[in-house]
Amino acid sequence: MNTSRSSIIEVSGIRVEVVRKPIKNLRLSVHPPDGRVRVSVPSRVDDEAVRLAVTSKLRWIHRHQQTFADRPRQSPREMVSGESHYFMGRRYRLNVLEHGGPNRISRNHNSELTLHVRPGTDRDKREQVLNEWYRQHMKALVPDLITEWQPVIGVQVADWGIKKMKTRWGSCNIRDHRVWLNLELAKKPLHCLEYVLVHEMVHLLERHHNDRFKTLMDQFLPQWRSYQDELNRAPLT
């Protein structure tokens, strides 16, 4: 049963989402792409205590919001020939080819993705075809990565899935040992996908982003901070 309650307050001109749930400690986070501020607090903490906590972190919040504001933003894709699209960290030129067969994607390993679509296929359907192609490639990669990392980390992933997420590269349901990965990771280098997967699997050992979590990440994937920075610098779609 979901026992959380959500409300909105304003602190020094910043809109803050406050989520009250049965937890022990207050958790403050700033989310991409627009620097949305969210505070998870124990159920009985009042708004005034939340305001004091947010006020004490205003410089930290502004710094993170500025980081998101400074990130390059990718212009909307029109799904037409000549556009740049990414797959596993490499840039490809899109070539749209209308034909009478089934919709599909073919890849020139050097530089080109060809989108084969029926005549009259609109922009949204073209994007759907490309996203499904991304999804199938991720589905082929993730099982081997999970198999590789389970004995290293010492956890078992009961289920996993891929979905589009606006503010996270991944998430996990600790109770059910289920991991979710952002479809956008198909566009990033393989080590970024692996980092996010390891990150979520480590959450099965430690729920919070505390010192213990960071120590475990250092143990299992020493270069994780550079991968995290690489994702944070990536253009927003």
Automatic annotation (TrEMBL):
Residues 26-233 form the YgjP-like metallopeptidase domain. It comes from uncultured Rubrobacteraceae bacterium. InterPro entries: UTP_pyrophosphatase-like, YgjP-like_metallopeptidase. Pfam families: YgjP-like. GO terms for molecular function: hydrolase activity. Keywords: Hydrolase. This is Predicted metal-dependent hydrolase.
